[in-house]
Write the structure tokens for this entry.
Amino acid sequence: MRFIYPATIKEEDGFFTVSFRDISHALTDGATFTEALDEASDCLGEALASCMIDNEPIPSPSRAQTGEVLVVPPALIAAKAALYVSARKEGLTKTALAKRLHVSEAVGRRLLNPRHPTKIVNLDKALHAMGKQMIISIA
């Protein structure tokens, strides 16, 4: 799973607007190109968090097309999204996920709560228990 989404940044009326074709409800802007790009990461994170909160599927990112930029969400949201996608693929409820991870139901819910500041090491352990390996890439 890679959470790197293509975005289009267009200048309109003195602002730079950012849209994601894979996540239509993710829209933001900035006074400059750089500001818009910075805002895009937070916007993407909020869009992924919204999918998790609303128990909706997280759209897979498509390949970037000419003129698009690649945007990544904040690392913690990406890790939680990976756990969320893994649990959904296996049809696990939050309760079943907690049982699989040998943690309380409250801990299981917090692992999937994008608003809870879970330690990355705990998400790494949870992903490992799901047969996944977290790989951090710096570019």
Summary: The longest helix spans residues 33-53.
